[in-house]
Amino acid sequence: MSPWQDTQHDLCSLEALRAIYPEPRRPQAAATLDKECDHVHPLYRPFIEAAPWCVLATHNGLTDGLDLSPRGDRGAAKLVEVVDGGRTLLLPDRRGNNRIDSLRNLVADPRIGLLFLIPGVGEAIRVQGRARISAHPDLCQRFAMGGDKLPRAVLVIAVSKVFFQCARAATRSGLWDAATQIPRQQLPSTGAVLAALSQGFDGADYDAALAERQRQTLY
User: Fold this and answer.
1) Which SUPFAM superfamilies would you find in this protein's record (predicted)?
2) Which residues in 163-201 are b (16+ Cβ under 10 Å) and which e?
3) How many whole angstroms separate alpha carbon 98 and alpha carbon 104?
4) Which DSSP helix (H) or strand (E) runs through 116?
5) What percent of the chain is helix, strand and coil (3-state, nearest 5)?
């Protein structure tokens, strides 16, 4: 039997986990536990406001499905805005593919998680809370691009937990090391993937138009 098929050594209880992962003890516990806040602390706020990219996690309470979705923006287009003294985040839902996986999940279950990344910075910021989806005209106008390119909705996130993740994962992976970057052409193209999964799909034509199409439809 392959090791990954053998369940004999699965850790299925908190006691089993703690036998391998002992409780943090002071002074190390300060860096592990005391960093947690129930709002966006003034020292966490610059990290969130500097982040051009985050991963959004949602859960579909109806089907027990989980989903992760990327969100990105920079410059005049804010990825997220911190309001209410750090108690609330506003996240515009920019133009996408209309699958609305995350939005459908939030309709069923408002719990949400976010992981903010900043290029060149090893630490990541983790946020947990509950979100509602607002199409209030003034709220959408707040995130307008080019005067008339508005998000269709804005996530209003009530923050319940914020803390930083240390830089170990980024350091181990070489995430921000230019020497570790992989040329895109070394991997299957988007068109090649779609052609393999869709009958009669012209992958080459899709790839040829992709960069310009994305540039034209960012907002």
Assistant:
1) FMN-binding split barrel
2) bbbeeeebeeeebbeeeeeeeeeeeeeebeeebeeeeee
3) 11
4) strand 111-117
5) 30, 25, 40
Q: How far is CA 3 from the centre of its chain?
A: 31
Cα 90 to Cα 113: distance, rounded to the nearest angstrom: 13
What is the pairing mode between strands 65-72 and 53-60? antiparallel
pTM above 0.85, yes or no: yes
Distance CA 137, CA 134 (A): 9
Written as six digits, the tokens of 193 are: 């993937």
- Structural domain spans, the chain: 34-173, 182-216
Distance CA 190, CA 204 (A): 9
CATH architecture type of domain 34-173: Roll (2.30)
In angstroms, the Cα distances linking 141 to 83, 91, 125, 154, 202 are 16, 13, 27, 10, 38
32, burial (CB in 10 Å: exposed 0-12, middle 13-18, buried 19+): middle
